[in-house]
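Trying the structure run again after the queue cleared.
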Amino acid sequence: MKKELPKVYEPQEVEGRIYEMWEKNGCFRGHRDPDKKPFTIVMPPPNVTGQLHMGHAMDATLQDILIRFKRMEGWEALWVPGTDHAGIATQIKVEEELRKNEGLSRHDLGREAFLERVWDWKARYGDRIVEQQKKLGASCDWERARFTMDEGLSKAVRHVFVSLYKKGLIYKGSRIVNWCPHCVTALSDAEVEYQDKPGHLWHIKYPIKGEEGRYLVVATTRPETMLGDTGVAVNPGDGRYADLVGKTCILPLVGREMPIVADEYVDPAFGTGCVKMTPAHDPNDFEVGLRHDLESIRVLDDSGKVTEGYGAYSGMDRYEARKAIVADLEAMGCLVKVEDHQHNVGTCYRCGTDVEPIISAQWFVKMEPLAEKALKAVNEGGTRFVPERFAKTYVNWMENVHDWCISRQLWWGHQIPVWYCSDCGHMTVSETDPAECEQCRSHQIRQDPDVLDTWFSSALWPFSTLGWPDEKSEDFRYFYPTDVLVTGYDIIFFWVARMIFSACEHTGKPPFHTVFIHGLVRDDKGRKMSKSLGNGIDPLEMAQRYGADALRFNLITGNSPGNDMRFYTERCEAMRNFANKIWNASRFVMMNLTIDQCGLPEKLELEDKWILSKLNTTIKEMTENLEKYELGVAAQKIYDFIWDNYCDWYIELTKARLQGGDEASRINAQKVLLYVLTEFLKLLHPFMPFLTEEIWQALPHQGDFLMLQAWPVCDPALDFTREENTMEQVMEVIREVRTRRAELNVPPSKRAKMTIVTEKGDLFRAGEAFLKRLAYASELTVTHTAPADSSGMVTAVTQEARIFIPLAELVDLAREKARMEKDLAKKRGELQSLETKLNNPGFVNKAPAQVVEAERERAERLTALITKMEEQLAAM
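Done. Tokens:
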């Protein structure tokens, strides 16, 4: 039974139904087929707290295009979805809910009860982002969906921790860490964002012990940390202070005696050449302290407040203490001067609070040996970046990487698999929960309360999701290594680098051969979308209003790897119009179909060969573009082919045959129309999956689903270069004639004689029927001799021809001339008043610059229009 398409395309009605059909029939499932090559993508797991934003929509669209393309190309395609437990973000969300609704903190509940609440929260909201991804058409294998804290992934995390610990690559040590007093946890270097902020340099006197009236002057940007000073350092080559090295000075406000040491770290040209040493609160001071055996005294607690033992300062917030300390230094005459100082301040990537370097016992991953393998993977081509420039970012970070602080002072996450014995002090590190101390067999053991950095588990994502560390896992053996990682440039350090070194260490192979980097989606003014600016655009709202396909096509057109893009809502509207154009063209074809099978006829006309040749080129170029990750270029090519070649031209070119009396010609035209429509639906499918599937299901077809059809292949037998060129030349004449007629306001019903002067007569005679019908020629003469008198003729020029049409046959000359003179006078008047305005200094100097510029541009446009009108009048 012939299916008809409704008059109007309603994406809201179609999309849910089509997605359900795909899912119910297992279209997204990845199978282990030994006769086929696998193609695997693991989805960057969005935070379980997440709501779909435009960045996710971009990410999902790019991945879905690639996976649908490869699936159609015949690969065994698997797209593994999942979500990340997102330690800090999720814990903060649940703590806020608890505080707001019940007035409780996590400490009131206790660890176990609090974690139950987080799991409840995850059960309620954790699938929200999954459902939102489905609305965009994401063709993931949802049966293989993973969560970074599910049983299998938790097993992998413990296995890796224990394995690295045994190799001496994980250690516990007191080091200076980045500490967020707001989130109350340590942060890795990658989680610190630096901002240039205005600050001050305070110059403070430190008296020399036993030398009345003599002192050193130190300069600091953080006077509140001076409470923890345990020394002053100078450069060993600095003659100004040579006699002071080995002596002691007195710390103002505290009275502590401190050694003066010589160390190469000090730059004698910066400030006074004397640097106060606070080993517990500065990473450089910590290193100097180790070399000179300086004491580490921590003076700020986990919340950024001054610790006990410092009188009135104790309990003060660090910035409150700063003010009080500076005031007291000034009162006692120890403050020499204060200078304005612009400096880089580390802030927490999650909450924006200024990070405090503090000494703390934490767990670290030793990075140097791991970085070596990860650098090799990229430098030797095992993994490449698209675009290539991002490889430099990666290499630079890897070459300068510090040990990775992996412990977090949170409750939600993978608790560190280390147990401390209360009786003998031994540390048991184990993949399974031990019942006793492995050394003394005591049952008095307690687990380390800290959890692992969220990125520790996501670093294992490409292989842990496929069943590793079970080497017998069939998914792991078949689908690993994966093929492409699609991600934004903003998490190269956080995630990409860590996945590469983790995979190289644990599986012996890089996790993917290509890292496809995309930019950020910005607003129409080029600003980053953010809550504070209120300029975020909800992708689901766009999908609801314009259809998911229109949103996807908007995100991909004009998109180039690694570059940010601007999001224009009006372009969603344009893409909806594109969808409607395809829908209407498909309805036209179906209304004219009397055939029930798709295939090409034996006899092809000129216009058939033209469209088939154009299709062949589009297939070839799009396939090349997609292989090179030029998804935006591929999208533009299929858009141009459908809109210009098929809808605007080919349908018009076949109408005479469809409506004519020649039965064979009519059937042949139907066959080519249907064949080309079916092929371009396949090409468009990865970009606009819902629309294309819905239309394809209504057309005569073989197979069950468009998404499982074979990707079109370029066929040399359909390369009709000569006929394509002929048709292009005929079309160029039609375009030029229509443009000239439109300029003269000539209706299509008014036909006129046309003379084409050319050296390629056969070429234009072949297109005579089209020239008469579409260029509205009452008679056509093709000659190589120009008319003796071309005055009173409308002329047009193309690459291969000159066209002459008697003007009198198109318009009433006298009336048209009068109309044009009237229009011309009006435009001249407009230009004159505009020039008067622009010559008025009062307007030019007082009006906003953009207003003046806009008026100048209008004057330029008017001048050009007047020139053209004068030329047309002269021709008359």
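The two ends are 59 Å apart (CA to CA). Worth checking whether this holds up in the mutant runs.
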